[in-house]
Amino acid sequence: xxxxxxxxxxxxxxxxxxxxxxxxxxxxxxxxxxxxxxxxxxxxxxxxxxxxxxxxxxxxxxxxxxxxxxxxxxxxxxxxxxxxxxxxxxxxxxxxxxxxxxxxxxxxxxxxxxxxxxxxxxxxxxxxxxxxxxxxxxxxxxxxxxxxxxxxxxxxxxxxxxxxxxxxxxxxxxxxxxxxxxxxxxxxxxxxxxxxxxxxxxxxxxxxxxxxxxxxxxxxxxxxxxxxxxxxxxxxxxxxxxxxxxxxxxxxxxxxxxxxxxxxxxxxxxxxxxxxxxxxxxxxxxxxxxxxxxxxxxxxxxxxxxxxxxxxxxxxxxxxxxxxxxxxxxxxxxxxxxxxxxxxxxxxxxxxxxxxxxxxxxxxxxxxxxxxxxxxxxxxx
Length: 381
Known about the structure:
9 helices, four-stranded antiparallel sheet, Tetrahydropterin Synthase, Chain A, alpha+beta, 381 residues
């Protein structure tokens, strides 16, 4: 019986599982496990002692499961028979695809449809013992091609059911599925994790890269045309709404800019908005040819009742001047009511009317050549 001194993976390849070609050793053999690998002793249908990266001299104390199974004596050099498998623990990438069409009822438009799907997955062997026990006896070595076949036959059969379930449960429109591939992929990965875990595999990523639609199906094409017409109508409505909002926003900004310009103008000329409105009221009253009527006077004074004190004098001046000048009326100094120019006594209170020049603000008598009122200091035009 040949006794091999060094047990290690002899070549660098893509095999996920690699079986050492010999199975007879002694307890002085050397075991070398490289980084990213694990080595498992397998005998009588059982995955026994496991070794991570490192160099080991096989002794009965570091192969206790094997020792117990085959009854190795302790402390002496002994021969034994066992298979040794090397497991690649690095992340692997594998392609996947549905072997046949997935049939279901489209959840939005409710018509039968058959689709295909394909993509890519990334995984690592998380439990070497479990993985080995599930696969040993089926194949001796597992390269990328054989692992693809294994996934296709053992796990990806469930993918078809999961795809139809997700589309139906989430009501994913078949015409919008491409824009939801990332979300779709994450949900598929979540559902497949337990299935992979049963084989000692950790699924790191699961991508759906393409959904094959039945472009030769007449019913599918009819609903596709209907969907895109609806999409165009919705897009046009949304665009119009956005344009209307932009237009309204532009108008609002123009109004704000105009208001700010007016405010700057007033600030430079030394008056406020309230003062401007007061002047406008005074001008309107002064231009009203019917101002001699008492009712119109009341309306004008009511409009000006809220004007601040600094402006009231200016407005009063304009109103009084208007009263004085309209139709050459004479203002009664007692009751302040207007009288015709040829009247000697006030027709409202009987007070004797003075036809001399008077101050338009306080109605005090002033001389013809006076430039300022001697009573209130008002400038006389």
